[in-house]
Design brief:
This protein is an alpha+beta fold and 203 residues long. 25% of the residues lie in helices and 24% in strands. The strands form four sheets. A three-stranded antiparallel beta sheet has the order 2-1-5. It has a two-stranded antiparallel ribbon with strand order 3-4.
Amino acid sequence: LKFSSKSLSNSMSLFLRLISFITSFNKELTNSYEIKIQPDDLLMINVTCDDLEISKPFNINNNIGNNQQNIGGNQNQQNGSIYLVDINGFVNFPVLGSLKIGGLTRTELMKMLTEKISEYIKNPLIIVTIRNYKVTVQGEVANPGIINFDTERFTLVDALLKAGDLKIQAKRNNILVIRQTDGIVTYNRVDITKTDFINSPFY
């Protein structure tokens, strides 16, 4: 299979345009979207305040239970406690009991916990991070497979670049994005050859 210098030049031009658009708009677009918490998500939650002794009851030691999982050692004030969201979207939280958190964003969860824990301690600081961001990339990419991210703010282009970028023969105007939200699976086609594709909700 042969490719002309013109086709290679066009591919390079498209790549440079994509990088330019990403630099200009990536921050604004990713800031407007937050992933919702779903069953099987792993959350790290740390509760602290001015008096660390008072906040201790709201942090667990990661003993294996119905809604929590032991990962990477015991809980401490810097790292927080690990919770596994159950199939119904619940976690069993110290003092507060069973909480329905499925469907909330990380920001919404921090606000909810702050309000509830403020009934017990003054000016609590709640830090929530989602630990198991991953995406599967298949098809005409250099390195197909499961890709892990350490942030909730990543884009379609980020995933493709992590997979080694699209091969020359890949159909850039017909990329299938599959998502599962609240148990519902959606299938959407994206054309990254169009300059306005970054405005797509599937970007």
